[in-house]
Amino acid sequence: MRIVHRLGDLLLDRVLIGVPASAGCPTETYTDWDCYYGRMRKRTCTVMGNCTTSCGSWTQTPLAC
Fold it and tell me: PROSITE patterns from the entry (predicted)?
């Protein structure tokens, strides 16, 4: 029985090489708002699965702040 258990462990080690152990982050997109010289500006940001955030460039809006 020990041999079967050991073989199973070895097979799992082969299959799981390079698989990260972290849970990661859910992918989500949101709009970031900012007040800049009396006018609101916005940009779209995305949280990636590896927990990093990527944002586009700021866009001016006609809204005052």
Answer: PROKAR_LIPOPROTEIN
